[in-house]
Design brief:
It is a single chain. The protein is of the alpha/beta class. It has helices at residues 37-44, 69-82, 95-106, 132-139, 143-154, 157-160, 163-175, 180-191, 219-228, 244-247, 249-262, and strands spanning 3-6, 9-17, 21-25, 48-52, 88-93, 111-117, 206-211, 233-237. It has a single domain (3-262), classed as Rossmann fold (3-Layer(aba) Sandwich). An 8-stranded mixed beta sheet has the order 1-2-4-3-5-6-7-8, sandwiched between helices. 45% of the residues are buried.
């Protein structure tokens, strides 16, 4: 897997497909592999897809000091520059959606369209409910327990029972691990994230996607983000959990594709 200098860090990435560039920004404790082929494959038909690992993840630079969401956004901008991509469609999910917000605020000229999935802005009215069972599973050091807890918390109850889907998720988590210390640093950055007073400055076409049974970042956060960004559109996914691109990969890819290509 290639690794490239992206400003102050080196980032591992994969680039595939053809068309206008689409940068995908992963969430908490995720790797570039967690996007899953059922979601990525249809996107490659229309886009030059760019996925990467955050600092501290995979073959990217190790985490040497605390960081903020804005630092991760600077990493993303550095990656685009290193790949000689002047502007791109951008998709960010969960923590990646927070990174995408900061990226769009810092470099609006580099964002063709913005898609924000299962994320939040921070600030008054936003909320991140505690997940004691998930936290205990992650901190236990029992990898099997942690992967199972992440699965059951991140998807809807009905989808959690899909044995084949879980087997695919488990295989990725077992092979591509993220250190607990890195996850904790990401969590710390998330708790300090607040773009709520600044999102009104965004002018690029923006789509917000959120599932109604999201337990990680409850649905009202998506409503709030959409309400703060002028002209944005909220796509409501009924009875879908946090990882909509796992539960509905084809539909999720279609939403990204339609939003980007309509606003070329």
């Amino acid at each position: 897997m290639p690794v490239i200098d992206a400003g102050d860090v080196r980032l591992s990435y994969e680039r595939s497909g053809a068309g206008p560039p689409l940068l995908l920004i992963m969430g908490l404790s995720g790797t570039l592999h967690h996007w899953g082929e059922p979601f990525l494959e249809p996107l490659r038909e229309n886009f030059d897809t760019i996925v990467y690992d955050h600092r501290g993840v995979g073959a990217s630079s190790r985490v040497e000091a605390p960081f903020a969401i804005a630092d991760l956004a600077a990493d993303a901008a550095g990656l685009l520059s290193a790949l000689e991509v002047e502007s791109a469609h951008v998709l960010g999910i969960s923590m990646g959606g927070m990174v995408a917000q900061e990226l769009a605020l810092a470099h609006p000229d580099r964002i063709r369209t913005l898609t924000l999935g299962c994320t939040y802005s921070g600030g008054p009215g936003s909320s991140l409910p505690p997940q004691p069972e998930l936290g205990a599973a992650i901190m236990s050091g029992d990898r099997e327990r942690a992967i199972r807890a992440m699965w059951e918390t991140n998807v809807s109850p009905g989808f959690a029972a899909d044995a084949d889907a879980y087997a695919a998720f488990r295989a990725i988590g077992a092979e591509h691990r993220v250190a607990i210390a890195v996850t904790m640093e990401q969590l710390s950055a998330i708790t300090r994230h607040d773009t709520s007073a600044r999102l009104s400055a965004l002018a690029m076409p923006t789509l917000v996607i959120h599932g109604t049974v999201d337990r990680i970042i409850p649905f009202h956060n998506g409503e709030m983000v959409a309400g703060l960004i002028p002209g944005s559109r909220l796509e409501v996914l009924r009875d879908i959990g946090h990882l909509s691109f796992w539960e509905m990969p084809e539909r999720s890819a279609e939403l990204v594709r339609e939003h980007a290509l309509v606003n070329v």
